[in-house]
Amino acid sequence: MLSTKAGIISQLGNDPQLQLIAVLDHQNIIQEANDFSLQEKPLSQTEIVEYLEYVEATRKTISGDVFFVENRNRILAFYPFFLERLPSELKPSRVGILFLKYDLTDAKRVAFNNALRRTVFANSLLILFYIGLWSFFELALTRRISKLVNASNDLAKGNLNVRTGLMGSDELVQVSAAFDFMAQKIQEKTNNLETELIEKEKIYKKLEKRNQELSSLNEKLEQATKAKADFLANMSHEIRTPMNGVLGIAQLLETTDLSRKQRDLVMTIRDSGDTLLTIINDILDFSKIESGKLTLEFQPVVWDEVVQSAINLLSTQVQKKKLWLTYESSIHEFSAFEGDAVRLRQILLNLLGNAVKFTTSGGVAISTSAICLDGEKESEEKEYCITVKIQDSGIGIAGDRLAKLFQPFTQADESINRKYGGTGLGLVISKSLVELMGGTIWVNSKGNIAGSPPVGWHPEIETQMYPQEHGATFYFTFLATSVSDVNRQNATSMPLLKEHESFDFAQLKVLLAEDNRVNQKVMLLILGKLGVTVDIANNGVEVLDHLKKEAYDVILMDVQMPELDGISTTRLIREGSYYQPYIIALTANALESDRQASLEAGMNDFLTKPILIEQVIQAFANFLKKTCELAPEIE
Questions:
Q1: Is residue 155 part of a domain?
Q2: In which band, very low, low, confident or very high, does the pLDDT at 377 lie, cut at 50, 70 and 90?
Q3: 581 within domain boundaries
Q4: How many domains does the chain have?
Q5: Are residues 361 and 476 in the same domain?
Q6: Is the whole model's pTM more than 0.70, yes or no?
Q7: Would you put residue 144 in left (φ > 0), alpha (ψ -120 to 50) or beta?
Q8: In angstroms, rounded to a whole number, what is the distance separating the alpha carbons of residues 309 and 315?
Q9: What is the pLDDT of residues 285-332, one digit of tens each?
Q10: Within this chain, do residues 320 and 380 fall inside the same structural domain, yes or no?
Q11: Is 60 exceeded by the pLDDT of residue 381?
């Protein structure tokens, strides 16, 4: 065995990295070594002694061991082997040790150099790969992407003719093709939009020109409307002024002793004058409707008294034609509501007047009903929808004429117009007033319906005084809010004037400011009937002169006077140190704006010419009532 080991040692000893190789017997005597000076020496006399524990451990475990020393620059190896059997032994029991000490410094350097060479080679290949990859991206991707980005920027800046024009079959070419297609479509759409904008600009210019023309026309229409309104107001003033003399003298004649024939003549004068005033009022109201200046004045209204007032005014015509006129109301929940009593009376007079005018026999029936719109509301003031129905037994209205019934200047028939007269404005005015009150108006005649009946209304559910083939039935609705018990005592309507015997008008000292001689004469006669002491002023300057000398209870102030008009005179009186009288405006201007201007100037009341005795009595009564109310405070 030792001879075999010696052969191995002689072979390994040629390796310059093998620093030491030795074979130890069971007594730790070096039998073979690559260093001949160590042969036959015990382990204790060699450098191997420092590894004695490893030698013993290897012999004991009979297993080799290899480990590093000196910072892993050296390898120590211990391999056990069995020595040759002695003659007296049955089997080998002696264990020898093969020890190796190998220097790894050169091997590591060689390995490092080899690894370095491999690394340099690999990195060189990697660099070449990166260079190739960069060349690919630069040539095949980056430049193409830059071209695509630049094209996008140009497109964003408004250059719609830009195209990438990339060629190939990769994904980037597909993106480029999509971009080119998008740019083409954008260009087409933009061109279309530009064309449309050019067309719209042309249309806009045409519209602008048209708007300017319309604006100019509107201005002209407004001027024409204003001129028409001014003309109507002036005409109303000019007509009312002489009518004041005609009707004033006629009503004074009624108070004298007249024969039956003379009284009929006077009544004809009054009726003709009243008809003319009705026409004038209708034309003025229609002018307000056209200009949008028709307004309502809401105050507490007693409905039954409004209806009774309209009936009383038509009672003479009803009696002459020997007709009957009935009124039935199912309004039991309330007796007063907020409304415009004057305009409600006007609607009733228009509809009742037509019914009486077109009825030769039989009569006219009025009925009223109401529906509460605030059924769950606990407040005493609730909103109601009031329906008024007026049915007559007259000639009725043909179906082909119903559609034009609520149009201005339209009568049911030309022959009717010639026979019965009228302006054809009454129903138009009534329709506008009803709509201002939140309601609607319609008619049912001979089974034909015109106007705007409410949803759910049907003639079959209506109780008819006459069969539908006779006469006509007019309906109108309006919204009203009931008045609480506290406010009902202040409710007003259009009742007939009370007797004035309880008032002593003779105590009043009155100044009449009027420049028209006829009107002066009429007013002096009217005031003389009442026993009033009167002084006359022909203009506002004379009024101020009179006030410097006398204290008057009432001034009857004509609005339009020479030198100084009634409005200006009133302002000077209210602003001055004069005794402050009760000033009543007398004017032939019947517009609401005239009334407001008079009240704003400081006047207390407003009377429209022609002046009726009843109006003067009522105005003086209002003054005396106010004086009585203020008397305790003065004391």
A1: no
A2: low
A3: yes
A4: 4
A5: yes
A6: no
A7: alpha
A8: 10
A9: 777 677 676 778 888 888 888 888 888 878 888 888 899 999 988 876
A10: yes
A11: yes
